[in-house]
Amino acid sequence: MKKPPRNIRYSQQSLNLDDIDAVIDVLRSDWLTQGPSITAFEDRLVQYCSAQHAVAVSNGTAALHLACMALGVTKGDIVWTSPNSFLASANCARFCGADVDFVDIDPITRNLCVLELEKKLRLAKLNNTLPKVLIPVHFAGKSCDMRRIFELSQEFGFSIIEDACHALGGTYNGKKVGCCEYSDLAVFSFHPAKVITTGEGGAILTNKSELSEKIRCLLTHGMTRNTELMENPSHGPWYYEQIALGLNYRITDIQAALGFSQMKRLDAFVRQRQELAKRYYNKLVNLPIILPDSSDIEACAFHLFPIGVDKKIRKTVFTALRSKGIGVNVHYIPIHTQPYYQRLGFAWGNYPNAEKYYESAISLPLHPELSFEDQDFICESLEKILANVTTLSENTVADTSMS
Ligand SMILES: *Cc1c(COP(=O)(O)O)cnc(C)c1O
User: Angle 190-194-197 (CA atoms, 0-180°, nearest 5)?
Assistant: First the structure.
């Protein structure tokens, strides 16, 4: 009998019966939103990351937006981030009316390059265009060089929001990403593609109580019931005040209960991702491709496993893998090349390392539900495809040279 075609996804949530029961328990309870599950989930994040405060919100994009708002980002300000990221890393500054600029990446880590950052800061100081906030993105789950970035923030006077959407469960200098030792705030996403999931969901971690208080107020319309924050005397027990312009970025208890349950398996998820990553490194080492930085596997949360192939054959290899039912993907189309950002003045050529990496990038499937058997199939398929495509392109070169 013919085997059914494979359908290997690049990323996939891992839910067990405990997760499902946790959600059902909330559905049977009095609180669907703003109830005890949210506090429990936030406390768990605080404990896990060793930060002082965690605020759970509706998604990672909302978390980035609130983080910018809490730092007072507004029109006339400048926010810097990595071009090799998801759109939200830059959009969050635009929501606040600020200008965005990018720092090119390091070709090995594919994180924003700290040497480039330092160079750009020195120049910006002369031109009076220093950023108010820097958003380093821990690409694929590997932390940026936060200590150096923090030193530069002290010298040049900017705040730091870690876009840690890929890096929950990862570490930096032996401490959990999200501890905010070298940043003002760190942001996570719990989209099903990420390390743990709440469906949609996100969180902001910080050690600064004034920032967490601001965020709690902004995520629910800028409203407060805390009399200490009010500007007028209370009218009575029903009284609330709007003290700022906020939004509705609340997470539900249904989602938070799922998040709390998923946190129990976070370490196991990360270990499984690292195990699969090690298998990829072993099996792919002799292929003509660029593997992700393997310098500190135990510290990386391995949200992604992005390889680089010769840009002339990237599309062919990508399409061939997809046709075998292997759900490869590409992370990321550089943000500055999007039409929206091009209209703001950016152009191809602005950040050559991010562009060069993009032109070669293919993310291989990686998630805790990926079986070794499927992973072996991916590796064997990639090897065969590369062998075929390489011969083909050699022939093409020969053909053109003869014509
Ligand atoms: C997923 C992601 C986000 C946005 O998170 P959502 O929960 O999807 O809104 C932001 N930044 C990065 C780097 C991400 O991967």
Answer: 40
Tell me: pLDDT of 401 over 60: no
Give me 160's structure tokens. Answer: 């730091």
Q: Please indicate whether residue 60, judged by its CB atom, sits closer than 6 Å to ligand 1.
A: yes
Indicate the pairing of strand 159-163 with strand 185-189.
parallel
Identify the pLDDT of residue 390: 76
Distance 136 CA to ligand 1 centre (A): 13
Q: Whose CA is nearest to atom 10 of ligand 1?
A: 88
Tell whether the torsion through CA atoms of 130, 135, 139 and 144 is positive or negative.
positive
DSSP string, 2-59: PPPPP-B-S------HHHHHHHHHHHTSS-SBSSHHHHHHHHHHHHHHT-SEEEEES-
Do residues 177 and 170 touch, judged by C-beta distance below 8 A? yes
- DSSP secondary-structure letter at 365? P
Residues 142-160 have a mean pLDDT of 98
Burial 61-93 (b: 16+ CB within 10 A, else e): bbbbbbbbbbbebeeebbbbbbbbbbebbbbbb
Cβ(191) – ligand 1 distance below 6 Å: yes
Q: What are the DSSP E strand ranges found in 285-369?
A: 305-308, 361-364
Tokens of 334: 């550089």
Strand, coil or helix: 227? helix
What is the whole-number distance in angstroms between the Cα of residue 189 and the centre of ligand 1? 6
Structure confidence by residue, pLDDT tens digits, 261-303: 999 999 999 999 999 999 999 999 999 999 999 999 999 999 9
Query: Can you name the residues that pair with 249 across neighbouring β-strands?
Result: none
Residues 6 or more apart whose Cβ sits within 8 Å of residue 81: 89, 90, 93, 100, 102, 103, 112, 134, 135, 136, 137, 163, 335
Q: How distant, in Å, are the alpha carbons of 63, 79, 145, 199 from that of 15?
A: 24, 37, 33, 11
Query: What is the whole-number distance in angstroms between the Cα of residue 263 and the centre of ligand 1?
Result: 18
DSSP strand E in 228-280: where? 241-242
pLDDT value at 65 more than 70: yes
